[in-house]
């Protein structure tokens, strides 16, 4: 089968498009014919070695496809999607049965491959990491990104005032369409001063920061006493160590660094969170933006585009 391989860590040049053997099933797994896969920053972190993985490695932690040979309750021909299982950037993937989520008829293949990673992330960020509520003020960095656009929608449905940072007027328009109350072009404006102005100097109850190195200090400075800084990515680089006393000085604030894997670590949690996302899509309460679709051979280009922060919404790999 055709697949993407990492044989070493490094830049996009280490992404190899090769012929490899179809994976053998372990007990409790099913073989899935992959149709589409979602592109996520974790794929880049695996490539860079920031999140170490054994080499040689088949990347892609999120996919959608059709059960080819069953090892569980789902019959061949069943449409499924999954997340947090490497190997989706290939024509076939071996996926643990308990991680397979049946795809309802109202979900198309691209949406199925785009829904779980970013959707569940946004869900736990505003319902578990920080329980957002009506009257809150939230700062969302990268508001036109995949998680950002979803998170804005979920926060607005909870009655939260959302301020977001974006890099271009085009991205600002997308964030506003998702419901953002205030869009801040960080390329032209100091986001710290802009948030202070928008909140009459009070700051925000929660800051969701997936940018990391270049924004975390500003995000922390904008928190109200007992506020929460949620670091869930580092597109600009990893955040350096934070002195716990700084949290006290800021007003006994909370610091969180959540991970998707821990929030769907058992069948019940996965079923509950995935069910919420799919139901919100069905009801029209959540709209996903799929910006670009790449063939499997062009995964490296998808990485380049994502790292350059040229994209909005979700990037999808078309496989079968």
Tags for this entry?
single chain, 320 residues, alpha/beta, Quinone Oxidoreductase, Chain A, domain 1, Rossmann fold, seven-stranded mixed beta sheet, six-stranded parallel beta sheet, 10 helices, 15 strands, 32% helix, 26% strand, globular
N-to-C CA distance = 11 Å
The percent of residues in helical segments reads 25-40%
Uncertain parts: none
- What pattern of helices and strands is seen along the backbone? EEEHEEEEHEHEHEHEHEHEHHEHE
Strand coverage percent: 25-35%
Q: Evaluate the radius of gyration.
A: 20 Å
Derived from helix and strand composition plus strand pairing, the structural class reads alpha/beta
What's the β-strand tally?
15
Number of helices: 10
The CATH homologous superfamily of the largest domain is called: Medium-chain alcohol dehydrogenases, catalytic domain
The best one-word shape is: globular
Mean pLDDT: 96
In CATH's first tier, which class of the largest domain applies?
Alpha Beta
Under CATH, the topology of the largest domain can be stated as Quinone Oxidoreductase, Chain A, domain 1
Corresponding CATH architecture of the largest domain: Alpha-Beta Complex
Count of individual domains: 2
Sheet having the most strands: 7 strands, mixed
């Amino acid at each position: 089968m055709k697949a993407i391989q990492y044989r070493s860590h490094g830049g996009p040049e280490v992404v190899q498009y090769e012929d490899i053997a179809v994976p053998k099933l372990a007990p409790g797994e099913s073989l899935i014919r992959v149709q589409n896969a979602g592109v996520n920053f974790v794929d880049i972190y695996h490539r860079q070695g920031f999140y170490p993985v054994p080499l040689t490695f088949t990347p892609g932690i999120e996919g959608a496809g059709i059960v080819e040979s069953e090892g569980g309750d789902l019959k061949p021909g069943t449409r499924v999607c999954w997340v947090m299982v490497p190997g989706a950037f290939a024509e076939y993937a071996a996926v643990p049965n308990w991680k397979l989520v049946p795809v309802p008829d109202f979900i198309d293949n691209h949406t199925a491959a785009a829904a779980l990673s970013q959707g569940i992330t946004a869900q736990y960020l505003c319902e578990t990491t920080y329980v957002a509520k009506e009257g809150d003020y939230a700062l969302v960095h990268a508001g036109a990104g995949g998680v950002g656009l979803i998170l804005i929608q979920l926060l607005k449905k909870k009655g939260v005032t959302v301020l977001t940072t974006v890099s271009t007027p085009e991205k600002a328009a997308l964030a506003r369409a998702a419901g953002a109350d205030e869009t801040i072009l960080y390329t032209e404006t100091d986001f710290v001063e802009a948030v202070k102005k928008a909140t009459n100097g009070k700051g925000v109850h929660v800051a969701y920061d997936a940018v990391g190195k270049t924004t975390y200090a500003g995000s922390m400075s904008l928190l109200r006493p007992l506020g929460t800084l949620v670091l869930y990515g580092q597109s600009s680089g990893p955040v350096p160590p934070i002195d716990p006393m700084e949290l006290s000085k800021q007003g006994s604030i909370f610091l969180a660094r959540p991970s998707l894997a821990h929030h769907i670590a058992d069948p019940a949690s996965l079923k509950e969170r995935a069910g919420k996302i799919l139901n919100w899509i069905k009801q029209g309460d959540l709209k996903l933006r799929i910006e670009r679709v790449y063939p499997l051979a062009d995964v490296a280009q998808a990485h380049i585009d994502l790292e350059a922060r040229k994209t909005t919404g979700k990037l999808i790999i078309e496989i079968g």
